[in-house]
Structure formats: structure tokens, C-alpha cells
Amino acid sequence: MPDNPAIQGVREAFLAQFPAASSDQALKALHDAFLSRKSGQLTALMKTLSTLAPEERRDFGQAVNTLKTEIETAIDEKRAALEATRQPSGGVDVTLPGRTLPMGRIHPLMRVRRDVEDIFTHMGYEILEGPEVEDDFHNFEALNMPPDHPARDMQDTLYLDAPVAGGTWGAHRFEGGQRGTVPEAQVRAATLLRTHTSAMQIRYMKTFPPPVRIIVPGRVYRRDNLDRSHTPMFQQFEGLVVGEGITLADLKGTLEAMMRALFGEGVKVRLRPSFFPYTEPSAEVDVSCRACGGSGCGTCKQTGWLEILGSGMVHPAVFEAVGYDPDKYTGFAFGMGMERVAMLRYGVDDIRLFYENDLRFLEQFPV
Amino acid sequence: MRVLVSWLRDFVDVTASPDEIAKTMSVRGFAVEGLEHIDWSSPESNIAKADAVIDFEVTGNRPDCMSVMGMAREIATAFNLPMRRPVARGKSSGEEEDGSSLRLASLKAVEKSDIDVIIENGDLCPRYAGAVADVTVGPSPGWMQARLQASGVRPISNIVDVTNYVLLEMGQPMHAFDFSKLEGAQIRVRTAASGESMTTLDGEKRELTDDMLVIADAQRPVAVAGVMGGAASEVADGTTVIVLESACFNPLSVRRTSRKLMLKTEASMRFERGLDPRLPVTAMERACALLETIGAGKARATVVDRYPQRIEPLTLKLRRSKISGLLGTSVPEGDVKRILESLGFTLREATESGWDVTVPTRRVDVTREVDLIEEVARHYGFDKLPSTFPALTFAPPPNDPRIGRARHLRTVMTAAGFSEAMTFGFVASAAAAPFASEGELAPIANPLSENFAVLRPSALPSLVDAVAHNRRREQRDVRLFEVGNRFTRSTGERRSIACAWTGAASLEHWSGGARDVDFFDMKGIVERVGEALRLEVTTDTRRENWLVPGRSAAVLARGERIGVMGQLTPAIAEAHGLPANDAVYVAEIDLDAAENLAPKEDMRIEALPRYPSVTRDISILIDAALSADAVRATARAAAPPTLVQIREFDRYQGKGIPEGKVSLSLRLTFRASDRTLTDAEVHSAMEAIVAALIERHGAVQR
Ligand SMILES: [Zn+2]
Fold it and tell me: Given Cys at both, which of A124, B43, B99, B414 links B392, Cβ 3.0 to 4.6 Å?
């Protein structure tokens, strides 16, 4: 029944209005007028179905549906055409490179330093910095290395022509952690460049009572020539824990936790007896060689192990020098070179690369 | 310390291979620096064919282990084996002998023999033994030469070789004098008289000072005590009678003398660490036995042993509770006793709490209970310790906030395209000179190189070096920064952030727009650093002789100078190896100063504006020399508080603008927090501002 006059009337009414509808809004109004489920003209047509003879109903219904599809298609097509005219013209070659924002890199030694700081912050350590210029008492004497002690030869020291005031430290621990007066134990007259961050052990213990749980990262200096494995300045972390009942086993557990965090779960850690004047017992610490997995290779001189840091139980003479009771307190300390860790982690075989600041080196590290 | 394994086996029947010995001892406190396998080819040598030299690193606290015997004792303990010691017994007739018989000669201690020994300075020489022997100088036998050579000592003559052999075997330095060259048949141990000098065995003439201990005859010094013998009394081919010296000297005295003379010897290295006062006579007996064994001569059977103050061994308490308290594990009592006794300590079960332990006099490193515990732990094995974790018994204090702030700065700087550099804290004097007056520089007293002669007064010279390093390696566009310390006499050690920028202002792109860095790029970075520190920074013209005039500024915050920025002069750029026509912009901000000025309290937010803002643009013609800062200040002073922002959006000089003038365009934004501004309000504000600009600066509105 395609020529049903009622349907034909609605179709003609639509075709008469359609050309003028040239906006989204007009198209929506047209859509509503004809196709709205409630009040559309097609809905009205369907309502007349019941007045028809039963044999006519099927054809009538089909004809209404055909018209419905016709109207929907017309409106959708016009909508799409309308949308297309509004798009900006001119495409681009999407394969050309993007406009990159410049992004610098954090120095690899700083990446290591941040990792270590984070590991120990999680373990409840206080991280703080100390002065790079020091006096003999804090760098040597209080660390059980009196003048003329042979162990001083192990650390060839750079001395200053005339004393200089050292940088401030520990201000955050005074006056509620805000800007405040600096602690008594500031370096008034530094005479040398600190050879190790251990000097801060003394400053800290002289200023604060036990218990102690600190990490001190920083630059240290030795009278060394530049070569593949030496620089006259390098960077260390000092760790110090003092309290009642601190043991060598605690040191072992702590170092293992640090090494796993730095080198991965599979790393093995070994403590070897050694000698430092300020610890007793003393231990050199090795980690299993990553290059060979511990079976022995050129990197580890066939031993399967790589030396990574020096450590030990704080010597009672050090406690005496800072006024701690050596019979009541024990503690452990360790000192580790950031360069050593970075060299092992990133496969760097020449320490000088860290201090040349060659962008071709620095930019290999991810942003 | 190079130790021959076959020599070790004279003292301990260790069946382990050299590799096993090395591996075990490296976890007992003796790192192994090398291991050489030896195959003795010499047929007359009766040393086992397959042999090895293990190079042990003996730590500075263990002079007792700078000998074959010392290492043998450690190995015996590590492998739980008994140890043999040299003993006095007669030479078994008809049998070929070598060192492995461990024979000692019997010497009778006498008050005075053919030689007299006088110790004038007992503090510096606790013991001196002298013995006379009749000798025939010649080469030593092959086995002795082979052992010396394997241990790194050059054979010289039978007499000298015997003294060196005893040094290596027992750790006791010895010296032989030609008796005929000792004036008055006397040994005087005394300090040198000032002005005295002597020629040592190495042929050097040494000026002596009155704090140096010497061995003298009746007339003059014949040896520097514990360091080196003198050339004048040296044993030579024609020598027939010798005096052997075996003594004990004050470690500090030997160390000072050795350092002063810049003369380090096998003897001085041992004496300065401390030697066993009980060893000299045993060593003398061993040397005399060896003289006979190798047929070099015969001792006159007596020894003059000056030992005025007998040194008694130390007794220390060792408490069981302290062992477990320090190590974190309880070591079985059997192990404690076995280890200490094997090392030569004597244990007496004193009380329930522990032992009284007598320390052998050779163990100069053991003076406290912890030293004993270390001995136990060392041979018990660090690998047997459990892994535990220290209990956190208190709330940890906050971290140093400077660390967090520096981290934040690094993030900000890298986001601005700068990579982090790390440079040394010292620079060459010439590089430092432009950055501080000479009186401000802190020189290093003993620099190893001219390049590291003074502490850096600024991080810029080394940072510019890093720029130059990159520039020479085809890196034209360089942005670097460093957070570090710098040093001057008046301010001491201060923290700073320094940055350097050369080349492109933005990354090259096919779409163009490339431009080289200029002053305002760097100023933007300085402002960004300020923001990161919660400081509003401004700049003010300031002349620095290392910066280009007119492109040099002081950086200020809250009216205080916190840094400097500008373009490096071509002369300085060139001095660092950069092309003179490369513009290098630099800045340095004192972080200590900046952080002191920064607000300490938390920031508080401002309510968002509820009423719309109104913007007005004006263009004015002003003197080109007039600073934007001055214009802004005038506008602000004349405007009502509803003026919330002034921004320069155009600055033009050239065609259509009179010489010496500049056209400056400003965009002013007005807003009130409690109402919508009316046109009339804004209009009158603009009129007031323009009037002020005309009045103060002679501005002409365009
Ligand atoms: Zn390996």
C-alpha cells in the first residue's frame, strides 16, 4: 500500500520541509516532528492501524516503516554533510616528527643517590648533609685516628692554606624544624677537605644523644690523580645506627636489604673481615657479580664478588670521643661510594665519565 | 705481603691447595691481591715442585702478619691445624739442611761481649739485642735465594740474605754491621745531634734532626733506627766479623723519621705499625742458626740483650654477653676457646660471665674486649651470622629539608631542558680569578695538580668547562646546571645552583622558528628557579667584569641580592676553550641566601575571582634607556588597587620611532573582588596612569 494517501501526505510534508532545514537545530526539530515516539507524525499514522481492515494492516505497517527509514537516512546524511563542512581544511603529514619539549637529565650519580635516600627514608633513617670542609678532629682524631696514625696514609688528604668556615648543617633539627639557629657543632675553622662522610658521624653524635639512625650523602675529597678508577673528588653515603643492642647481624640484614633494593632481589651479599680504625669489628662488603651471576668473570677477577662498601661496628673509642657510653650503646656504620654503585648498575667502566658531563653520556639516561 | 706456600708449610701442614687457602683467608681478614703458581725448575732446589705465591693484603693493624709465621698462624687457625715453631737444637750431622728445619741457635745472654750496647733513649728503643758473628761473605744458597726472590726480595749476599730471610719469616727487621767499621766496638742508640748527617745504604746523604733515633758507634750515626742502615758500616766482600742487630723501636718515632726522610722500607713499615717486644732475641737465634746452616759463618754464642723495662702481656676481660651482644648471635664456647687459643691467646675461665684473656705481645692491635670479639667473629665466620634488622625504637626525625628542595630544583631544571652536571669542588687559580678577588680565594695547600689549586668560589668556571667539553664534541646546544657548594674566605662554604646555556633557545624543528638563546631566555630560567623556591625574583643592572656590559644583572629577592646572571664575556669563554662568538648565558643563585628569604609557612590559597576582569592596552613612547621596571612602578603607584597585572606585550624601536626612543605596549588588567568594575572606573584609572607616565617619564601616548 505504498500509495496510501495518508502516508503519501506525511512523506510530501517531510519533503517540503526538509530542504530548508540546514542547521543541527532545524534537523532536530524535523526529526522530532516526524519521528518522535510520542508526538511524531509517523507515530500518529501507526495509531490509525487499528481502524484498518485486518488484511490491510501488514502492508500499511510496512509502508510506514519504509518511510521512517527514508526520513532517518535523509536526516542523518544531511547532519553528516553539515558536520563535514565545519571541519578545518588541510591535513598534515602525521609521520613528521613532533615538536619536542627539551628535557634535561638527572645526573646518574644523583639517580643512585635518590634511590639510596628513598630506601633509607623508608627504613626510618634521617637523611642529612654535612660540610665538605672539615677540621682534623672530626675527620680523623675522633674517628680513632690520632695524629701520625698510619691509617691516615690510607686517605691522602687535601689541606687548606688557611682555615675557612664550613657550611651549616642540621638547622632543621632546631627551632621546630624551621629556619633557626645553627647547631653548636658547626665547622668554624675547617683546615682540610673531608676525606670521608664519616666526619658527620662525629658532628651528629656530639650534637644529639642516642638513638641515632642517619644517612649522610655528600662529596668527599682525596689527593688522587684522575684515571679510570680514581677522581680527586667523589661521593659517598655514610650510614650510622646507634642504640642499645645494635649488632653486627643488624648491619648484615640492613646492608642486604639495601643491596636488594639497589641491585635486585637476586643479589647476594658477603661480609669480609677488614680493618678501619673507627670500627671494630670491621667488614668489607661484597655483592655477587652481576656480569656473571657469581660464577666468575673478568669484571670480578674470577671471584664472583665485587667489593662495594666498607662497614663495621662503631669503635668504642669513637663513642668515647663523642661522649656516648660504650658499655651501654653499640652501633654500626657504613660508607659507600656512589660512583661504585652507579658503575655497577649502569655498566660504566671509566669513573671520569661522571665528571666530564658529556651530554652524549648524560642523555643516555631516561628523562 | 707475598707469601710462598711451601714456606708456609714449614710451619703448618696445610693440605689445602693454594687456591683454597687464598679463598678461605680472603674471608678471614686477608684479602688476596694475587696468586701466582710456580713450577720450580732449578734441580738443586729441594723445594716442592708445584708451589705458589699468594699476595695477601695485610691490613695496617696486623704487623704480626707481615711474615710467613704470622700468616701461618692465621692459616692454622682457619684450617684448625697445629702450628710448628722454630726450636733450639743441634745441627744433625751429615744431612743437607735448609730453612725448613726451623732451627734456632743457642745464644747465652751476657752483659757485655765483644760489642757493647748502650741505649740512651729508652722511650724510643725498648729493646736492643746485638750479637757478634765471624763470617765469610759470599752468595747464599739457591733455596734461600729462590725463597727471597719469590717473596719479592732481591738476594744480595749470604749475610744480608739471612737478615732478609728472618724479616720475611718472622717479621723481625734485622741489620748487619761490619764490626771493623764500628768505632769503639760500641752500639749507641741515641737521638741524632742537630747538624749530624749520614749516607744511607741507598747512597743518599741524609740530614738528621734531633728528634730522629739513630744507631751510632762511639763517634757517629751508623744507621737510622728502624729505617735504614748506613753505607759506611755496610757489610762488604771483605767483611769477616759482623754485628747483628735485632731490636724494637717506638712506632711513632720510626714513622715520623721515615716520613721526614721520605724513606719507606720493609723495616720501617713494620716498626711503625708496632712489633712484638719478645721477638728480637728469638729472631737473633734464628739468624745465627741460618748463618751456620748455609755455611756463612758462626755466631760467637752470646747476645747482648738490652731490655730495661720488660713488657708484660695485657690481660683483658671477655664477657659472653658482650660477644652475643655485639655479634647478634651466640658463638659456641668451644669455638671461642679454640679460635683464641689457636691464635696464641691464653684463656682463664674466671667467672660465670666470661674469661680473662692474656694477649700475646705481638698482637699490638688487641687492646680492648671488642678486639677479642672481632678475633672470634673473624674466624667463626661472618657468613654464619644471621641477618636481622635493627628495631626502630623512636620516631625518626625529619630529613634535612634542603635535600627535598634540591630535588625539587632538579625536577624544575630538567623540565626546563637543563641536564644536571657534577663538577669538582676545586678549580685552577686562573679559572677562579675572575669570580672572586684574590683575598677571597681559598687555596689548597698541597694540590696534586694546578687544575685543582683553589676551592671554587663559584660553580660557574667548572660548569663552563663542561659546556666547552660538549661544544668540542659537536654538541652546539648545551644546557647544564649544577647544585653544589662553593667557597670564599668571607662567606665560607655556601650552597648554590649554577646554570649555563649556549646554542639554540628551543629544539630545532622542521617547521622552523629556531633562535639562539638570549638574555631573556636565561632570565626566564632564573625566574623559574625563584618560583621553585617560592620567591619572586627581580633583576637589576649590575656590572660584573666577567659578564658582557649591558647583559649582566644582579638577581634579587625581597630586595636582597641572591645571585647574578648574564652573558659570559668572549675573553672568559675563550679562556675555557669556547669560540668567542658563541653566546654563553650563565646564572648562579646562592641557595642558602634564597632559602633564608623564602617563606617558611605553608602557602594559603586565594579565593577565585567572582567578578570579571577588564583589560586595557596602551602604547607609549619613552626614552630607550628607561627600564621597564621604572615604567611598571610608576603605573602601579598611580593606579587604584584594582590594577592586578601589568604585562609588557610589545617593545619596538626602529622605523617610525625617533632616535633614542622606544615604543612600549602595556596590557593592564583590572579586577575588583567585590563588584564588577564599571567602564568609568577603569577609564579614570587609565587616565591617572597615563598622566603619571607623562609626568614622570615624559611619555607620549601613541
Ligand atoms: Zn663476574
Answer: A124
